[in-house]
């Protein structure tokens, strides 16, 4: 044990000496022919810059007055109404595919019991592929985040929800036929829930 503590102490000592050596200023050199040489090393402090796109911030106006998720639409009890839910999703998705624009933007808010409700995000889709997302400050959001989806991705998620045992509540947008509100609860609940809300759909 003493040997182990000594080895650990020696390692910490080496790290301490190394740190001091890295940050210690070189001594001022004096010479008969040279008056003195001063430390001319410049320390550069890294700065993190957040780039925001101010042009997207006004698009979040459609979230004004939006509080906690507002429940709406039809509720399907699963497994009893699984066939009816799948038929509904299939019909609505075919309508969406027939009408959808190739390029569009929309506002998306996703929440679940853990990690909780996320804020509104602006999604941009080009050629039917999600290409970029922003938060309400105009800062870009990684597309690898779990709460970034295109409308087609939302339909994929909805298809998977038909396999649960619990309930799915869903409302479709009347013109474009995308899911504008989805709330799922996995039995026995009550904390196994997720909610998705879509607003401000804009073809571009």
What's this model, at a glance?
The protein is α+β, with helices and mostly antiparallel strands and 204 residues long. The chain contains 3 helices and 8 strands; from the N terminus they run αβαββββαβββ.
Task: Please describe what this structure looks like.
With 204 residues, the chain is α+β, with helices and mostly antiparallel strands. It has a single domain, classed as outer membrane lipoprotein receptor (LolB), chain A (Clam), CATH 2.50.20. 25% of the residues lie in helices and 27% in strands. It has helices at 2-23, 82-99, 151-161, and strands at 74-78, 104-112, 116-117, 121-126, 129-135, 166-172, 179-186, 193-203. Strands 1, 2, 3, 4, 5, 6, 7 and 8 form an 8-stranded antiparallel β-sheet that branches. A hairpin with a 2-residue loop joins strand 4 (121-126) and strand 5 (129-135). The longest helix has 22 residues, at 2-23. It is globular and about 50 Å long.
